[in-house]
Amino acid sequence: MTTQANEAxxxxxxxxxxxxxxxxxxxxxxxxGDLERxxxxxxSVLGFEEAFRWSPDAPYIRELLGDELVAxxxxxxxxxxxxxxxxxxxxxxxxxxxxxxxNAAAGTAHIGFAVTGLDELYAHLLERxxxxxxxxxxxxxxxxxxxxxxxxxxxxxxxxxxxxxxKWLYEFGEPAQEACC
Length: 181
What we know:
Layout: H1 3-19, E1 28-31, H2 35-45, E2 49-54, H3 59-65, E3 72-78, E4 85-91, E5 110-114, H4 118-127, E6 131-132, E7 148-153, E8 159-164
Parallel strand pairs: 1-4, 5-8
Antiparallel strand pairs: 2-3, 3-4, 6-7, 7-8
């Protein structure tokens, strides 16, 4: 490990011992416009399994979200044989104006999944009517160099990244000093 990495690790250890620590991903929450449409996409198209549904109504929910009128319908989905959990939430009473995630506007996000056989999976997803930003590309620099990557759009325009790579993103380490493109 580099000196910089050792220092970062030491700082992380100090934070853990003095302030608590983030230990693992818990879930990915997506605010959707049509719950059933999104459940269909993430389960029927991407292979998640429904764990449970609920419509939480409690004072702590309104306090947590900062909205005294909030009402939520939610579905919890799990990717089989993993700890990856999606919480799909439709706000049924107060409906904020949707952000334009299709153009990667500030304040939006994307979710990324590791896959095998990206090109075959991509062809299958297109047959299912999934929209993509582009065809799969082969990164020429960075952590996914030599792999395959594509961005899809979910029914609300949220970008879903599928990555076929020999490395996990965290294994990349220090930025490479390569020329762009």
